[in-house]
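Intended use. Records like the one below are meant for learning the mapping from a protein sequence to its folded structure. Do not use them to infer anything beyond what is encoded.
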Amino acid sequence: QVQLEESGGGLVQQGGSLRLSCATSEGSFEFHTVSWFRQAPGEERELIGRMWWSGGGTRYADFVQGRFIISKDTAKNLLYLQMNNLKPEDTAVYYCNAFRPGGLEYWGQGTQVTVSS
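Structure written out for the chain above:
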């Protein structure tokens, strides 16, 4: 069973930045797409953005507005979510997601991000 593990969450002040990381138990990302989601208390999980792993193309949800960037380090086999100009409404649990053709989908356990005003 493939496992994903997020790290880098924490408490940050409004306007600050955080970089989340996602690692896979397989040691390398051999997936079709990798994505970041988040879920705030009482809300549904929502897509932040997605990267097509082989080509590196990305697409983001409208609310990102250029504040978040998904990137990868293929040498370290890590996926990143750089978050800038954080707002209190960005407070949520952030999840890494990976997808393979055939419907195989994997999730991490999430990392908490809290933005204070």
